[in-house]
Amino acid sequence: MTSTDKKVGNLPEGKHEPLTRETAAAGVESVLKMLEGRWKLVILFHLFGGQVMRFSELERAIPGISQKMLIQQLRQMEDDGIVRRIVYPQVPPKVEYLLTEWGQSLCPVLDALLNWAAARPEQEQGETSGDQLGA
Amino acid sequence: MTSTDKKVGNLPEGKHEPLTRETAAAGVESVLKMLEGRWKLVILFHLFGGQVMRFSELERAIPGISQKMLIQQLRQMEDDGIVRRIVYPQVPPKVEYLLTEWGQSLCPVLDALLNWAAARPEQEQGETSGDQLGA
């Protein structure tokens, strides 16, 4: 038994509203949808740690992305409340991107996901015969 | 400042291998892909907490799912090492499903995701003028 076994119950017990199995699943699904797409995660990992980046810096930092796609992804992340856009009123305009406090707080959660993935056993036995359990 | 601010750095620091921004993003993406699809999450939330369920019980518990889809989802989760299938050698055969220890340990991680989603501020200001920052 690991320490996690003690913490897990039938359903997660957290700061959120009481959940049924269905609303919990739907809640996780909506978070997954929000993060879907390779670029959003790459953008997130570039901005974690309080990084502030201009559009052109992000463009250079993510070689595979098109300008149009970067604009689209940043706009969606802004609308979702993950990214904040700062426009400096100067000519030519200077625009910077950073994470909101809420966006920044996703970092330890994604870290937990990575730790979970890294803890995957080498060879997990998919099928067990009832015989082996003494049935 | 919240307590999470202290924990977050440029990149997650966990038990996993040292990561670049790109490998971290790809790692999270592969976990998201593994959980993609509404049914897998619903199945997970039905099996969290050490639940052991027969195929017919899962079928009844998830009204919207077809038999074919349930078989497919369970098979994929078995292949991923999340679900364990126990076959009892009797006539008619009895087949039970439960989570592996690794699958079970996903519960607190999904809980953290739900807590993160629940902590979303009511109205997050997407765009900030540089003026407001004294620029």
What do these coordinates show?
2 copies of one chain form a homodimer. By secondary structure, the first copy, chain A, is α+β, with helices and mostly antiparallel strands. Chain A has a domain at 33-113: Arc Repressor Mutant, subunit A, CATH 1.10.10. Chain A has 7 helices and 4 strands, in the order H-H-H-E-H-H-E-E-H-H-E. The first copy, chain A, has a 3-stranded antiparallel sheet. In chain A, strand 2 (83-88) and strand 3 form a beta hairpin. The two termini of chain A are 22 Å apart. The model of chain A is unreliable at 1-9 (pLDDT under 50). Chains A and B meet through helix 1, helix 2, helix 3, strand 2 and helix 6 of A and helix 1, helix 2, helix 3, strand 2 and helix 6 of B. Strand 2 (83-88) of chain A pairs parallel with strand 4 of chain B.
Short description:
The first copy, chain A, contains seven helices and four strands, in the order αααβααββααβ. By secondary structure, chain A is of the alpha+beta class.
Summary tags:
homodimer; 135 residues; alpha+beta; Arc Repressor Mutant, subunit A; three-stranded antiparallel β-sheet; 7 helices; elongated; transcription regulation (chains A, B); Transcriptional regulator (chains A, B); HTH_HxlR (chains A, B); DNA-binding (chains A, B); DNA binding (chains A, B)
